[in-house]
C-alpha cells in the first residue's frame, strides 16, 4: 500500500478525532450530564449490536477477500446472516413500545425506542459498506464513513444551538439518527455496483460454515472492547451517578485520539501482514514493527499526560477530573494496537479461538476490577480498571501467539508498557494532589524511552524523511 493510500485511510481517524474534539465540548456545554450519560449508553449499544450481529463475518470477509474468486458472493455471504438476525431481533423489541428507551435510558418513550432501532440498523449497514471501501483500498471513502456522520451531527447541533431548540436527549438522539441516515444513503449510492452484483449471487452455504468458524470467536475477541469500556459504562449506569458517567464518557471521547493510532494501524496492518506471510518475510518485519509501535505508544502516553491539563480550557469546570482520567482511558486503544502486532500469530494460523481465550479471561478480570473500583473511585475507578485489563490483554494475547506460532522478543515491550501503565494509574488516582511532581515524572519517562529506543527512533525518523 503506497503512501497516498495510507494517507487516505488516515484522514478518517484523524478527522474523526478532530471533529470529536470540537463536538464533545459543545455538547458538554449545551446538554446536561444526564443526557451526556445517556448518549454514552447509546453509543455502547450501537457498537455492541454491530459487533454481535455481524457474527464475525465482517472479519471473515476481510480474511478471505484476496483469496476469493467471487467477491460479490463473498460479500453477500458475509452480510445476509447477520442482517436477518438483526432484523428479527429489532422486530421483537419493536413490538413492545417504549421498552428499549425504558431499559437503556430510564425514559418511557416509543419514539426514542424507534430511534434506537433505526440507529442500530443504519450502523450495521454502514459497517459493511466501510469494509467494501477498505478492501478495495479506497482510503478516502473509507475515511468518509467515519467523518460524514460526525460532520452532519455537528451541523445539526449547531442549528439547535443557534435556534435555541432541541437541548434535550430526544433531539440529541434525533440528530444522531438523521446524521447517520444521510451519510448511509450517500455510501449506499457510492457502492451500488457492489450491492447490485451481490444481489445477483446466492449465499454460499459451503463457504459460510468455515467463515463462521473463523469469525464467531472474533466476536468474543471484539467483546473484549465491550468488556474494557462498555461494561464500565453499563456498570456505572446502574451503580454510580450520571455525573460520573458523563465524566467517564467525555474522557473516553477524548481518548479517541489514541483510537486514531489504533484505527489507522488496524486498517492497514492485517492485510499487510497476511501478504508478508504469503511472501515468507513476516517474522522479521513483525519484530521491527513491534519495536516501532512500542516506542510510538509509549511516547503518546507521555505527550497525552503532559498536555492533559489543556482540556480544562474547553470544558465546563464540573468536568475538571477528565484531565486525570484521560490517560488511563488511552490505555485500551494503545495497548490494543500493540497487541495487534505481538498477537498476530493467531490470525496467521487462522486460530481465532486463541484470541477468544484471552478475551474471556480479560472480561472476567475487568468485571472484578470495576466491581471493586467504581464504587470507591467512580469514573477514575472505571478508567483504572480499563487500563489494567488492557495491559493484561496485551500480555495474554502476546504469550498465546508466541507459544503457538513463532517467538518474538518481548521483554523490552513488557517493561516499557508496564512503566506507562503504572504511572498512568498513579496519575489518574493521585494526579490532582501533586500535578507538578507528575509532570516531572512523565517528562523523565519520555526521556528514558527515547534513550532506550534510540535505534528505533532513528529508523522512524529516516523513514519519515525519506517519504
UniProtKB/TrEMBL annotation:
Keywords attached to this Swiss-Prot or TrEMBL record, sorted alphabetically, are: Cell membrane, Membrane, Transmembrane, Transmembrane helix
| Record field: transmembrane | 7-30, 36-57, 78-100, 112-133, 140-163, 169-189, 210-228, 248-272, 293-316, 322-344, 356-374, 435-453
Q: Where in the cell is it found?
A: Cell membrane
From the UniProt record, list the coiled-coil ranges: none
Q: What topology in the membrane does the UniProt record assign?
A: Multi-pass membrane protein
InterPro entries given in the database record = Poly_Biosynth_Transport, Polysacc_synth
Superkingdom assignment: Bacteria
Identify the main location: membrane
Listed name of the protein: Membrane protein involved in the export of O-antigen and teichoic acid
Specify the taxonomic lineage: Bacteria, Pseudomonadati, Pseudomonadota, Gammaproteobacteria, Pseudomonadales
Amino acid at each position: 500500500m503506497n503512501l497516498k493510500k495510507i494517507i487516505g485511510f488516515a484522514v478518517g481517524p484523524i478527522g474523526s478525532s478532530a471533529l470529536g474534539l470540537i463536538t464533545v465540548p459543545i455538547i458538554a456545554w449545551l446538554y446536561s450530564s444526564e443526557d451526556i450519560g445517556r448518549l454514552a449508553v447509546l453509543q455502547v449499544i450501537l457498537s455492541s449490536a454491530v459487533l454481535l450481529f455481524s457474527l464475525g463475518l465482517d472479519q471473515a470477509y476481510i480474511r478471505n477477500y484476496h483469496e476469493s474468486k467471487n467477491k460479490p458472493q463473498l460479500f453477500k455471504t458475509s452480510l445476509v446472516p447477520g442482517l436477518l438476525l438483526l432484523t428479527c431481533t429489532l422486530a421483537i423489541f419493536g413490538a413492545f413500545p417504549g421498552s428499549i428507551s425504558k431499559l437503556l435510558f430510564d425514559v418511557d418513550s416509543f419514539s426514542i425506542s424507534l430511534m434506537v432501532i433505526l440507529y442500530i440498523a443504519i450502523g450495521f449497514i454502514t459497517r459493511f459498506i466501510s469494509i467494501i471501501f477498505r478492501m478495495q483500498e479506497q482510503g478516502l471513502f473509507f475515511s468518509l464513513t467515519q467523518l460524514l456522520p460526525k460532520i452532519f451531527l455537528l451541523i445539526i447541533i449547531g442549528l439547535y444551538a443557534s435556534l435555541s431548540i432541541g437541548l434535550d436527549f430526544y433531539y440529541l438522539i434525533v440528530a444522531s439518527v438523521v446524521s447517520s441516515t444521510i451519510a448511509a444513503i450517500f455510501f449506499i449510492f457510492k457502492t451500488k455496483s457492489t450491492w447490485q452484483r451481490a444481489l445477483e449471487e446466492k449465499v454460499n452455504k459451503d463457504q459460510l460454515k468455515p467463515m463462521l468458524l473463523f469469525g464467531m470467536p472474533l466476536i468474543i475477541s471484539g467483546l473484549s472492547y465491550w468488556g474494557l469500556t462498555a461494561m464500565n459504562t453499563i456498570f456505572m449506569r446502574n451503580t454510580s451517578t450520571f455525573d460520573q458517567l458523563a465524566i467517564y464518557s467525555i474522557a473516553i471521547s477524548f481518548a479517541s485520539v489514541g483510537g486514531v493510532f489504533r484505527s489507522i494501524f488496524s486498517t492497514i496492518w492485517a492485510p499487510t501482514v497476511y501478504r508478508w506471510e504469503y511472501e515468507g518475510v513476516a517474522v522479521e518485519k513483525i519484530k521491527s514493527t513491534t519495536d516501532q509501535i512500542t516506542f510510538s505508544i509509549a511516547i503518546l502516553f507521555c505527550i497525552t499526560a503532559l498536555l492533559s491539563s489543556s482540556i480544562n480550557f474547553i470544558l465546563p469546570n464540573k468536568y475538571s477530573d477528565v484531565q486525570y482520567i484521560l490517560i488511563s482511558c488511552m490505555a485500551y486503544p494503545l495497548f490494543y494496537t500493540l497487541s495487534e502486532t505481538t498477537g498476530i500469530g493467531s490470525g496467521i494460523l487462522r486460530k481465532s479461538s486463541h484470541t477468544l481465550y484471552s478475551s474471556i479471561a480479560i472480561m472476567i478480570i475487568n468485571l472484578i476490577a470495576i466491581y471493586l473500583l467504581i464504587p470507591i473511585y467512580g469514573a477514575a475507578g472505571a478508567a483504572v480498571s480499563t487500563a489494567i485489563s488492557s495491559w493484561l490483554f496485551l500480555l495474554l494475547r502476546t504469550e498465546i501467539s508466541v507459544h503457538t506460532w513463532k517467538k518474538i522478543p518481548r521483554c523490552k515491550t513488557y517493561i516499557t508498557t508496564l512503566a506507562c501503565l503504572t504511572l498512568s494509574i498513579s496519575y489518574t488516582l493521585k494526579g490532582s494532589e501533586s500535578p507538578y511532581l507528575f509532570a516531572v515524572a512523565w517528562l523523565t519517562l519520555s526521556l528514558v524511552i527515547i534513550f532506550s529506543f534510540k535505534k528505533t527512533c532513528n529508523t522512524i525518523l529516516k523513514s519519515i524523511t525519506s517519504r
